[in-house]
Design brief:
It is a multi-pass membrane protein. 71% of the residues lie in helices and 7% in strands. The protein is mainly alpha-helical. Strand 4 and strand 5 form a beta hairpin. The longest helix has 40 residues.
Length: 438
């Protein structure tokens, strides 16, 4: 493994690990706030127990997310010094604001965890809401910084120098809204389905059914609503990518030839050498509509992109297909759940519906990981789109591969610890939170 590949692999590993905790940190506090609100309004102690149980999970994920996020900030400087030298002064504002949001989240979480029976009940609830809002804002700010890498703004690039820097224009670059919207909804869908799936499994095992049934409903409602909204945000993102990053869109769809009424490719195996896709389902004109809003519009293919500027086609295409396929499966489960809620109440007691949620537990996070592969790999070979190549930004320090092995071991260990702690939390439910509900 050469140093360039090692640096990219370490960054990918760190981002892939951290994004899971970021999603949960953005979303779980809202679940917690809803259950707490229901307790305050109904005085049903089971909702209080759910809130306390979830708050322990939020604390675990917050701690691990803080560690992995701190590692990422160091890696930006250590692995990509040329990038940070030039980009830091331009897109540093969202990172600085994210740090502020993080501190507010930490303070509010402390108030919430230790505020039971100490604060006014509604002030205590409000601190939980602040945890969610600040966590969501942190995620949006980080995504804004990443969006800048896709659509750099807020500076003039003249003779190799970055001048006339405008941090606000950099932060609110053209891509920030579509990326932040898509990522935020994805976080709600992934976390909602994961939490609902865990509680559905406990219901199927007939363990503390009343406790887990109420928990399941809160998480499932959040997750299913987000799953139905996600294709709409995906359409916004696709149209923006088609306009601002034609090479990425072409790689996503393995669209080799520029043409009008371009077909949407579902599945398939890209044959880069022969410039075709084998075994794919093609929907005529659908890619033109998805990218341009017109079934007859021309869509730029990879034949119009210089080879040295083309992203890795197979990886980008497969990641995009995985993301879309899993999103469609989750949307299908969401519609089944809505039918059960509003039309077929008997379905809510059927094991097959709960089993669907159990099977879907990891799907949202797999889709999130695939989506970030599309975002990052699809931008290659650029670290700043059209301005700086990734190979020019990497550290010249030799031996990076050993750092990659070390961090891989650290992240694996952290993952094992988190799984163990969450497993113990679930096992402690009967003793701590649900003594009256068999």
């Amino acid at each position: 493994m050469n140093d360039f590949i090692a640096a990219r692999s370490q960054m990918a590993l760190s981002l892939g690990f951290h994004i899971i905790f970021s999603c949960i940190g953005m979303v779980m506090p809202f679940f917690m706030a809803v259950s707490h609100y229901l307790y305050l309004k109904t005085n049903d102690v089971s909702y209080k127990n759910i809130t306390k149980a979830w708050s322990k999970g939020v604390a675990i994920f917050f701690a691990v997310g803080a560690v992995s996020g701190t590692v990422l900030s160091f890696e930006l400087g250590l692995l990509w010094p040329k990038f940070m030298e030039h980009a830091g002064p331009i897109f540093g504002m969202p990172f600085s604001l994210e740090g502020t949001a993080f501190f507010i989240e930490a303070i509010a979480l402390g108030f919430f965890l230790y505020g039971w029976d100490r604060f006014n009940k509604w002030f205590h609830w409000f601190t939980g809401v602040i945890v969610g809002v600040s966590g969501l804002l942190s995620g949006v700010l980080v995504v804004a910084a990443n969006a800048w890498m896709n659509t750099p703004a807020g500076f003039d690039y003249v003779d190799g120098k970055y001048i006339n820097i405008d941090p606000l224009a950099a932060m609110f670059n053209d891509a920030w809204f579509s990326q932040a919207l898509h990522m935020s909804i994805a976080a709600f869908a992934a976390t909602g389905f994961a939490v609902a799936g865990i509680h559905a499994l406990m219901i199927l095992r007939k363990q503390n059914v009343a406790f887990h049934a109420k928990s399941f409903k809160i998480a499932a409602v959040f997750g299913t609503i987000a799953a139905v909204m996600q294709p709409l945000s995906g359409d916004i993102s696709a149209k923006f990518v088609g306009k601002s990053q034609p090479a990425k869109l072409a790689a996503m769809e393995a669209h080799f030839h520029t043409e009008k009424s371009a077909p949407l490719i579902i599945g398939g195996i890209p044959d880069v050498k022969n410039q075709k896709v084998d075994y794919a389902i093609k929907i005529p004109g659908a890619l033109s509509f998805m990218a341009k809003g017109n079934f007859k519009a021309e869509v730029t293919g990879l034949d119009q992109i210089p080879k040295e500027n083309q992203p890795p086609i197979a990886i980008t295409h497969y990641a995009f297909q995985i993301m879309v396929a899993l999103g469609m499966i989750m949307m299908g489960i969401a519609f089944a759940y809505f039918i059960a809620l509003f039309k077929k109440k008997s379905w809510l007691k059927q094991q097959w519906l709960l089993k669907l949620f159990v099977l879907a537990t990891p799907l949202g996070f797999i889709a999130v990981e695939a989506g970030w592969v599309v975002t990052e790999v699809g931008r290659q070979p650029w670290i700043i789109n059209g301005v700086m190549r990734t190979k020019d930004a990497v550290t010249p320090m030799p031996g990076i591969q050993y750092s990659f092995y070390l961090f891989s071991a650290v992240y694996f260990s952290l993952a094992v610890i988190v799984v163990f702690m969450l497993y113990r939390q679930i096992k402690m439910v009967p003793q701590l939170y649900d003594k009256t509900n068999p």
